[in-house]
Amino acid sequence: MREIEAKYQVRSGDGEALSAALKRAGVELGSPVHQDDQAYAPEAWAYGLSKVGVPFARLRTTQDGRHLFTVKTPVSNEMECSEAESIVADRQQMHEALVHMGFRPTVRIVKTRCSGTVGEWSVCVDEVESAGLFIEVEATVTDDRDGLAVQAELDAWVRALEVPVERTTDTYDSLVRAARA
């Protein structure tokens, strides 16, 4: 499975305009969900190096106490990743296992997410502590579609919302790290 996404920072004060535009586009966002993510990178990788082809891990705890373990490997860019995900029973034990496998914790990402769908795409509006408000539009594919072509489709849809946004190709861990620097 590949996750292909386009991500945008929403200008301060434009959250209501975004909500109205999503509603006009037929996107019904669900209730806010709190997510506490710890990002992990291989010991040999450092910020500033390419992420393409490198596996990265994440441990997420949601407000209902569920723990999700995810591994993403960027394919052609950071917004196109092969992905595997599973629920884990014990976050601390999974953390220890990751460290034993040669991963190191990098950045903690805490956010509030509202999710919806448009067609086969998922839409997430995220308020990320230290980084701001973002919209992500994501396609999950199991075929060999060109990731850049899918990202262009996602971009066209977001631009059609006519809300002032700035596209970013950085992942949340990089955005939070830069905001805290």
TrEMBL record:
Residues 1-178 form the CYTH domain. Gene3D superfamilies: Hypothetical Protein Pfu-838710-001. SUPFAM superfamilies: CYTH-like phosphatases. InterPro entries: Adenylyl_cyclase_CyaB, CYTH-like_dom_sf, CYTH_domain. It holds the Pfam family CYTH. PANTHER family: CYTH DOMAIN-CONTAINING PROTEIN, SI:CH211-156B7.4. This is CYTH domain-containing protein.
